[in-house]
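Entry: Membrane cofactor protein
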Amino acid sequence: SLFLEACGDPPRFKTMMLQGEPKPNYRPGECVQYECRLGFKPKLPALPRSAVCQDNNTWSSLQDACVGKSCPNLGDPANGQVNFVNGSVLFGSQAHVSCNPGFYLIGAKVIYCEISGDNVNWSDNLPICEIILCATPGNITNGRFTQYKEVYQYSEVVIYRCNPSHGPDEYSLIGETTLICVDHNRWSSDPPECKVVKCDYPIVENGAIVSGFRGKYYYNMQVVFQCHDGFHLHGSSTIVCGANGTWEPKLPKCSAKGMKVS
């Protein structure tokens, strides 16, 4: 038979749960007991953890009587810091670990206060902050770098330069001259190359070089053109000898004013 006199489902709580199985309905005067959920413990001083089905078919008022358990306190790692995202070490909180400049992290960057058996603990060991060191960067053909060492500290610098060439053409350095130790075994860029990079002598019909006259044109050398009177320049007036021995952008053209350029 249907109970007209009955309370609905007992209230639900974030930190505590019903002891035993819930019943389909409860008669006035019936009582339900709650226990703390995993990861929580009774508040102190203790608060009531039971509710009664009242004569008006509503449950007596009850509030969360449990509080998150605490994980062990974490000190800062040597040469680093711990930031508690929720501002606490309670169940469900996170700890983010970062290292001071010049150090890198070994281990988990984020650890969580989580259930461990019938208690709570951190999901991982506190990571460590190890000093950043770089191994000797790469040797290059036709060039060298200073200062040569077995090991470099964080932010130390090496400088590359090309050797004198014993042929008719000088070597050009393509890439970065300076490399910096930026992270553990990581330099700011790859070593450069030293090689002969030579562009053809640039000739523009009906035009002339106005700056950058030279006998030979090597990597990164720049030339500026101007067209003769009555001629119009198409393309870029300034060109540079590129790393693969071609002019960048391509040579301009000078066409008679009023004529279409092909």
